[in-house]
Amino acid sequence: MFTGIIEEIGTIVRLDRGARSAQLVISGGVIFSDLKLGDSVAVNGVCLTASAISGTQFTADVMPETLDRTDLGSLRPGSRVNLERAMAADGRFGGHMVAGHIDATGTVAGVRRDDNAVWVTIAAGPEILRYTIEKGSIAIDGISLTVAAVDGSGFSVSIIPHTGSETTLLSKRPGDLVNLEVDLVGKYVEQLLQPRETAIQSGGITTEFLAKHGF
To answer: Which of 27, 96, 108 is nearest to 60 (CA)?
Structure first.
């Protein structure tokens, strides 16, 4: 579990592509103070496992499903990435609950300055927008952000100077892909409601049955 508070910007040292998988070698600094083999690291919001560590570099294997759902396959040596270690049990919860499991990618549709802030608009599909609400939380490339506006084609966030300087988001340009993870709560609520709705629709439990038994 992560919080979406980026610890540092790392650099892709190497990306070795297999038939459908890949292996990443990533360099950093801050996260290596206590990084151990098997630890989870969010790389642009994608939860990866450190399978090897050498100095201030770690290696992570990327399976086909992850390459299909994220922008990791488009990275190149020299690409900058947001890094966050898994949240410590005694740490402050500064962002929101981020699993590191990307729901889909979006596309940067626009970037505009507004005094000391920068508005970034992301074009996203219905699988993202159904869980996206104004003033709700979303993770973009692993960054915990507040949704400032939503419409039928995407959503916008407003970036403060600190977030802009400590993450890679403002280096993105219109047309660039970003990894998106919606708030977990909405997905869990929807999933928990589905069995009840299915049962009612199939006749297993009817509204008459519920009324008869005091519901």
So the answer is: 27
